[in-house]
């Protein structure tokens, strides 16, 4: 029973395990055998092949024959066959197990698979030989009663496997051997039936076709024949298939049932090797696969290159992109044509079948000539191989010929003018030429270009020129056909591109400026870019100028005699003589015409007209063109007109050349200076002098003749007949020239002082040069003159005559001179003056700033005329003019006389500080139209004199009016007294003293009530020296800490005569100080310190009687007065007063301090047992006469705080703190031991279960599921 129970338990456990195995097996892929069965056909009992079954069957040869036996320990014929069918063939045996079946059951089960029946050994052998019977078939033997008596398995060579009888056991023998033998147990055979037991397998086939018949159809380069496929099982090749022309192929032998893969290992001609694998399953019949194979196609790349350079790179601005190509080829029984455009120099055509393809260029790329050639290309299957796409790029096939052209450069002048001799392009200006200009051709294209420099037609690397590189140089020469100067490249020298034509050397007579850099393009084959006329290379002609100098003939230098400092022409003409405005004409004497100021000037024509003017830089009169006025050439220049003041003396033409750009030529062709000299216009003057009253002749009267322009003045005199004449015919200019000038400035002129035979000559030039007298010409140069009669004994008592005249015609061109006619004398004007101090009208003025008014009385003036009176102050002591700042003190007044007699004031303003003690005298001169008509200059005249007396002096002392010191309190009323000491005043004369206060810190006047603080006093001194006082009253509260300084001014008659204003003077200064204030008493304040009465710390035991002492420190109390301090205890946690017996805990004490600062103590006793853990804070108040004067009530003040705590306990056994257990600590070991024991039991049970043959009892588990758990 124990064994049975154990087996039952084992069985139960086995089922559990099997359930698990089954669950796992569901996750494992099916085996190959299971897969075959799943897909087996129903033509045999089993889908297992003989190759698989034979070794397993033979494994059981020798098993004993046991009648009725059903195990491998022994069986009978049906037991053996049913075992093979069930365990080896894998049939689903009816009845549950193979051991339950007899020969009849086998007979019935196999009936659907019968393939043969016979009744003799010969029948069997024949059927085996013809393949009707096959190894592995099931054979059932029947007796004559058609009862099944034996079963066997067909073997090879007409043998059978069977369990025959006890003497034979399980073995193999020939069929014809056992047919005639009685095997016992009723095994007598009359017939037999054969059932198909195993599958026969089959052939593996492959049908191959074209995946694209449009590509392959009718194309001899494609063939389906010769494809080779490998047939694989379990990774090993087991067979080979080779296709025929129709694409069909098969294995040479049948293959056993099973799963195979087929893969192409060698593609046929024209087809891509297919890397795919095709699964097939042989299950008793042929298994086939079909494959549409991809034909190899051609991807054709048309790669363009430049045929000149062989490079796959376009030249210049050309491109290999944008060419349009078409490709034609056989396709789908006809011809297919596709087009494409090159990019990056190539175009690609895809999907082209093998064979012939024709490529033709439809459109050439930019910069290249069209390619007319048809390119036929052949791609055979042998070339292509077996990749899906054959990439074909034929080399050196698609060449492009670049467009080429040339450049012709015509040399031209940048000034486009119509030359009278022909087109401007053919003729250079002046003496210039267009021959010999040199040009560089520069590559300005996008890419390199090839220029065949050595003209051999072969490309060399050194003939490649990158962008920016100079390609070649060429020089202009005359081209008769074009009638022009040109430079040329070859007609096809330059490829399609952009080029710079840069002039590197200009031709003679031309600069490098102008249109000397032109960019041009070659865009057509054979194009010659003609850079002529408007597009030509145009230079600016060398241009220069000419400058001539104009000199005075008499002086031999560029200086006008009688000139007004290089004057220019004004509205009335010249202010005197001038070398300005003289005309010179420049004439073209070059080989060709020239352009001047935009106008064409032919040979012999006037190129420019220029006029002289003063040249400050050169210090000479010059006439010049602009520095770029005249083109490169030869010219003549001559004086063609003069001005009014000079004669045209030199009219000779000079020749000069312009050869350097920007140069102004100053010398002629021979190297001589371009200088012309002219003579000034000269003439003479004469007059007759008579008296108006009796017409008597005035002899020996001097006249001062003055050149208005230069100021040159000389004296001419009347002779004994009263006649005056300046001509050399009257008196030689050379003889004692201008000797009578000694009369100028002479106070008294008598007849004996005059020399009537002296000559007169005006030769002063504008820069100070003087010409020598010359009797060939007049004495007076061109210009305006004044003539003034000088006072002498002959005309005493008569008015002095004056006049003006002009010299404008030369004595060599006219017989007339300037005739001033008869001059009559009239009684003359008189003046007298009175000078006074402007301040008070007397003849005395203080040293300093002074104004003196001189009243000038006049007589005998002509009413309606304008006069000017000019005064000069003279120092009487020295007789010299008074000077102020280095300049003479003068004044003038211009007026129009209403009557013949009257007065006019002249005011002198000057600084007389240095003239104290001096007398100054006013001298006056009366003029009309700049001519003196009367003078009053008497140094001894008292009426004209003002005395300059020393200026008074003052000094001040400012003090506080209260205590007479220099410090005052800055209160609401401040009084400062300033005592002013004076010196040098005039006794009996009234003076005004004005004082003002200045804030020293700001420098501004002190203000009070918004007004400046000032004070004024008027006094009349009895003596020259003394003092006066000035008092200032003001509000000084805002000026505490400031210093105030008294400034004083002393005036007389409204004019300040002295002052004292020194901001740093301590004597004038009063310091304003802040008034003292009573000291403010210290504000009362208190601070407290609360402690436990027992030990003086801030902690007390919360028991029934707690005493807290609060020490109150005070400050700012008044000694000797009584104060009360009141304290209240507060609970910090509640913010409310502490209570004991229902009342607030308080304390009060009165005290009288003997000092302002000190301390007083309060004591609080209360029941604190209910306040354990609370903080108690003491609040204190100090009052006086019931009024609070100081408080200290800060709930957070730790000094005012006492904490109430438990009474401390000292334990006998201290409680340890928590933490990790130490060595020796007790731990919960029992649970841990149980846990360990449980773990050990689990391990033991596990080990017990795993021991062979030692299974747990079934009763140990409730059921199978519990075991699983």
Automatic annotation (TrEMBL):
GO-annotated biological processes: carbohydrate metabolic process; proteolysis
Gene3D superfamilies: 2.60.40.3930, endopeptidase domain like (from Nostoc punctiforme), Immunoglobulins
Ranges in coiled-coil conformation: none
All residue ranges annotated as the NlpC/P60 domain in the record: 47-190
Keyword Transmembrane: yes
Keywords: Collagen, Hydrolase, Membrane, Protease, Secreted, Signal, Thiol protease, Transmembrane, Transmembrane helix
Pfam families documented for this protein: NLPC_P60 (PF00877), SpaA (PF17802), TQ (PF18202)
Membrane-spanning residues: 1229-1249
Molecular functions (GO terms): cysteine-type peptidase activity
InterPro entries the record matches: Ig-like_fold (IPR013783), NLP_P60_dom (IPR000064), Papain-like_cys_pep_sf (IPR038765), SpaA_PFL_dom_1 (IPR041033), TQ (IPR041100)
Keyword Chaperone: no
PANTHER family assigned: COLOSSIN-B-RELATED
Protein name (Swiss-Prot/TrEMBL): Collagen-binding protein
Species: Bifidobacterium merycicum
Lineage of source species: Bacteria, Bacillati, Actinomycetota, Actinomycetes, Bifidobacteriales
């Amino acid at each position: 029973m124990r064994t049975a129970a154990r087996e039952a338990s084992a069985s139960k456990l086995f089922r559990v395990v099997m359930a698990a195995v089954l669950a796992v097996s569901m996750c494992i892929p099916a085996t190959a055998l299971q897969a075959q069965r799943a897909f087996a056909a129903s033509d045999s009992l089993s889908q297992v092949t003989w190759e698989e079954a034979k070794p397993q069957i033979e494994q059981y040869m020798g098993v004993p024959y046991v009648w009725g036996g059903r195990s491998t320990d022994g069986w009978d014929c049906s037991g053996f066959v049913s075992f093979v069918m069930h365990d080896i063939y894998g049939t689903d045996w009816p009845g549950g197990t193979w051991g339950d079946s007899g020969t009849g059951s086998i007979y019935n089960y196999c009936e659907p698979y019968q393939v043969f029946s016979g009744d003799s050994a010969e029948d069997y052998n024949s059927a085996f030989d013809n393949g009707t019977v096959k190894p592995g078939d099931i054979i059932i033997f029947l007796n004559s009663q058609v009862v099944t008596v034996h079963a066997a398995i067909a073997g090879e060579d007409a043998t059978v496997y069977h369990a025959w009888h006890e003497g034979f056991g399980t073995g193999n023998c020939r069929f014809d051997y056992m047919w005639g033998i009685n095997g016992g147990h009723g095994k007598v055979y009359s017939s037999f039936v054969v059932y198909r037991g195993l599958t026969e397998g089959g052939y593996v086939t492959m049908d191959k076709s074209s995946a694209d018949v449009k590509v392959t159809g009718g194309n001899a380069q494609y063939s389906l024949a010769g494809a080779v496929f490998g047939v694989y099982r379990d990774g090993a090749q087991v067979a080979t298939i080779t296709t025929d022309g129709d694409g069909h192929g098969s294995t040479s032998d049948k293959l056993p049932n099973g799963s195979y893969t087929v893969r192409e290992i060698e593609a046929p001609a024209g087809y891509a090797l297919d890397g795919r694998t095709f699964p097939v399953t042989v299950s008793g019949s042929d298994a086939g696969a079909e494959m549409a194979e991809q034909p190899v196609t051609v991807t054709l790349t048309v790669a363009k290159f430049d045929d000149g350079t062989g490079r796959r790179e376009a030249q210049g601005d050309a491109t290999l992109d944008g060419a349009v190509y078409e490709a034609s080829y056989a396709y789908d029984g006809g011809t297919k044509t596709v087009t494409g455009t090159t990019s990056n120099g190539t175009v690609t055509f895809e999907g082209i079948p093998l064979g012939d393809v024709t490529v033709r260029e439809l459109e050439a790329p930019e910069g290249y000539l069209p390619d007319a050639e048809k390119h036929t290309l052949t791609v055979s299957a042998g070339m292509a191989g077996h990749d899906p796409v054959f990439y074909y790029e034929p080399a050196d096939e698609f060449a492009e010929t670049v467009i080429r052209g040339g450049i012709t450069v015509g040399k031209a002048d940048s000034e486009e003018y119509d030359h009278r001799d022909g087109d401007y392009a053919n003729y250079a200006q002046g003496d210039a030429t267009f021959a010999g200009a040199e040009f560089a051709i520069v590559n300005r294209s996008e890419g390199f270009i090839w220029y065949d420099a050595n003209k051999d037609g072969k490309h060399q690397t050194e003939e490649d020129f990158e962008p920016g590189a100079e390609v070649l140089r060429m020089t202009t020469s005359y081209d008769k056909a074009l009638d022009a100067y040109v430079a040329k490249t070859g007609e096809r020298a330059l490829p399609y591109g952009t080029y710079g034509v840069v002039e590197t050397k200009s031709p003679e007579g031309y600069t490098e400026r102008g249109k000397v850099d032109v960019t041009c393009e070659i865009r057509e084959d054979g194009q010659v870019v003609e850079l002529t006329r408007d597009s030509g290379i145009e230079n600016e002609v060398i241009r220069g100028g000419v400058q001539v100098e104009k000199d005075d003939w008499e002086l031999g230098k560029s200086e006008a005699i009688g000139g007004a400092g290089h004057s220019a022409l004004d509205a009335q003409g010249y202010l005197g003589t001038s070398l300005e405005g003289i005309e010179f004409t420049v004439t073209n004497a070059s080989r060709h015409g020239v352009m001047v100021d935009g106008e064409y000037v032919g040979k012999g024509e006037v190129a420019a007209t220029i006029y002289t003017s003063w040249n400050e830089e050169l210090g000479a009169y010059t006439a010049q063109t602009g520095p770029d006025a005249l083109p490169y050439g030869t010219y003549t220049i001559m004086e063609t007109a003069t001005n009014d003041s000079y004669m045209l003396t030199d009219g000779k033409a000079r020749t000069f050349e312009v050869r350097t750009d920007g140069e102004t030529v100053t010398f002629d062709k021979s190297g001589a200076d371009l200088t012309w000299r002219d003579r000034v216009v000269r003439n003479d003057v004469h007059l007759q002098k008579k008296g108006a009253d009796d017409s008597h002749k005035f002899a020996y009267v001097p006249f001062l003749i003055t050149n208005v322009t230069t100021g040159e003045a000389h004296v001419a005199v009347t002779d004994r007949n009263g006649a005056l004449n300046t001509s050399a015919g009257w008196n030689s200019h050379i003889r004692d020239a201008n000797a009578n000038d000694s009369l100028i400035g002479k106070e008294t002129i008598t007849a004996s002082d005059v020399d009537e035979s002296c000559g007169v000559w005006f030769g002063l030039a504008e820069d100070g040069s003087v010409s020598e007298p010359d009797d060939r010409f007049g004495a007076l140069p061109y210009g305006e003159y004044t003539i003034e009669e000088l006072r002498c004994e002959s005309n005493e008592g008569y008015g002095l005559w004056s006049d003006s005249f002009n010299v404008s015609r030369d004595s060599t061109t006219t017989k007339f001179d300037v005739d001033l006619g008869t001059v009559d004398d009239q009684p003359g004007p008189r003046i007298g003056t009175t000078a006074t101090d402007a301040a008070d009208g007397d003849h005395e003025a203080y040293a300093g700033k002074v104004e003196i008014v001189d009243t000038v009385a006049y007589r005998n003036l002509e009413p309606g005329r304008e006069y000017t009176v000019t005064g000069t102050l003279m120092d009487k002591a020295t007789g010299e003019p008074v000077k102020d700042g280095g300049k003479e003190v003068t004044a003038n007044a211009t007026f129009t006389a209403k009557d013949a007699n009257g007065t006019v004031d002249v005011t002198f303003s000057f600084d007389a500080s240095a003239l104290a003690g001096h007398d100054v005298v006013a001298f006056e001169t009366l003029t009309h139209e700049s001519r003196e008509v009367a003078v009053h200059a008497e140094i001894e005249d008292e009426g004209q004199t003002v005395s300059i007396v020393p200026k008074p002096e003052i000094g001040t002392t400012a003090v506080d009016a209260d205590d007479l010191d220099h410090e005052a309190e800055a209160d609401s009323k401040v009084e400062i007294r300033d005592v002013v000491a004076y010196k040098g005043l005039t006794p009996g004369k009234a003076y005004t003293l004005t004082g003002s206060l200045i804030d020293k810190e700001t420098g501004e006047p002190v203000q009070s009530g918004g007004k400046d603080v000032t004070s004024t006093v008027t006094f009349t001194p009895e003596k020259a020296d003394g003092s006066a006082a000035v008092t200032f009253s003001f509000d000084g509260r805002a000026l505490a800490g400031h210093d105030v300084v008294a400034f004083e001014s002393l005036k007389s008659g409204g004019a300040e005569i002295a002052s004292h204003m020194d901001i740093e003077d301590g004597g004038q200064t009063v310091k304003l100080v802040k008034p003292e204030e009573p000291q403010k008493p210290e504000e009362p304040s208190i601070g407290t310190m609360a402690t436990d009465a027992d030990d003086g710390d801030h902690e007390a035991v919360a028991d029934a009687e707690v005493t807290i002492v609060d020490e109150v420190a005070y400050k700012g109390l008044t000694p000797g007065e009584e104060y009360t301090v009141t304290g209240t205890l507060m609970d910090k946690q509640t913010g409310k007063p502490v209570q004991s017996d229902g009342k607030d805990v308080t304390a009060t004490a009165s005290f009288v301090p003997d000092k302002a600062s000190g301390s007083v103590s309060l004591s609080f006793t209360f029941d604190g047992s209910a306040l354990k853990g609370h903080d108690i804070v003491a609040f204190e108040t100090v009052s006086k006469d019931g009024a609070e004067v100081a408080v200290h009530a800060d709930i957070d003040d730790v000094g005012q705080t006492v904490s109430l705590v438990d009474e401390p306990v000292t334990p006998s056994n201290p409680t340890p703190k928590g933490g990790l257990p130490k060595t020796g600590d007790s731990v919960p070991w029992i649970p841990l031991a149980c846990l360990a024991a449980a773990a050990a039991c689990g391990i033991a049970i596990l080990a017990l279960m795993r021991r062979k043959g030692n299974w747990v009892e079934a009763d140990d588990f409730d059921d199978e599921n519990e075991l699983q758990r």
